[in-house]
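=== How it folds ===
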Amino acid sequence: MLRFEYHNLLASKMFPSAIPVDKLSEYTSACDAAHKEILSDRQVDILGFYNLPEQSIEHIVDFMAKLDPMFDTMVVLGIGGSALGNKALYSALRTEQELPRKLFVYDNVDPIFLHEILSSINMDSTIFNVITKSGTTAETMAGYMILMDIIKQRFPSDYRKRMIITTDKEKGFLRQIIKTEGYTSFIVPDNVGGRFSVLTDVGLVSSAFTGMDIGELLRGAAAMRDRCQTTDILANPAYLNGLIHFLYYRQGKNISVMMPYSNSLYDFADWYRQLWAESLGKRKDIKNRDIYVGQTPVKALGTTDQHSQVQLYAEGPNDKIFTFLTVENFKHDYVIPNLHPDREEVSYLGGRKLSELLNAERFATEIALSQAMRPNCNLIFPQIDEYHLGEFIMMYEIMTVFTGKLLHINPLDQPGVEAGKIATYALMGKAGFDKERAGIDSYKKELGLH
């Protein structure tokens, strides 16, 4: 079971300036109200991620059973919620679980990045998975058109089996292409937003392809969801973490640092950054009043960033709350040989495991931050596997929605992102955006741009 150590988030003799535990009880009514709002949202089916553990995965299992065994690599074309979860799961498990197939995720329109992927794969044994609910995402569709052209030219007789599409179940441009071309397709559900979609077909198809046990992912998610049904704040890790983050945000802790002490979990800090930033960074509250809220998520890697960021964290502005991700047991580990027993500079390391050193350094960072009166907590993975990753995903999705309710904002929309999309359409000459294009031309003229 994933464990949440929060003692350095609440006041103690060593950390008297932290939030007093009595402060939590002052927000009982606010937490109860947020919980009721979540229950209401679930009843009208706009928080579909809660129900994903019960979904059928037979269609994915059947697809994998029928898939031509020549395919040993998948390239996902997606961005944001259509990419980050796929990358995070694969990065976490590819080594510890010794996954038999490879995954690449093309989630930027950088041409060098695309060239690097194409140079790293064997086209003959690669299947491509286009993921976009709308079928209009500029970045994803640009990649789709480039790669579809390459595939059709190289494999004119069987290009259809080399492309699958994950999109809206009924509407959109890609659903029309599916009907015309007969591509195998999967569904982005209507009631699960992109950044909450890793446990849908969006993330499960690529995970199953690489060899993960997606049933275990969902079982872990179900276990965490059930733990988080209670309104007893100290027994609900998602609500407790959300409430404490909310309280520290109100005290001026505008930055949330996630610091995995595991390279394998580093991409989950990226997944968290989108979830936290896009859900909670809002100008308007639910009554359409300007409030400009949001805690900036930052990622760091232990021990690497002890030598780059921790100086700032310990002695710089006291505007951050820290979350460590710790792994107790590694499948792959090494004992440090005692090559220089007569030298005290290094002999203390001899005979110790690398994992011991890694976790000792994490604890040392915890001590340093606590002594500097910087609030921090620790999420402990007994090991890196599908079950515990499923727990983590569900905990943070619930935590994010709950915190949004405390902030009185809509954690499910992203109007700021939409504004950027519209500007991109105008700049690239998409029909129907003449007004926006004229505004951009005026902006460029004012700045002296051509």
In short: The CA atoms of residues 260 and 266 lie 6 Å apart. The longest helix spans residues 386-407. The longest strand covers residues 320-329. The chain has a mean pLDDT of 95.
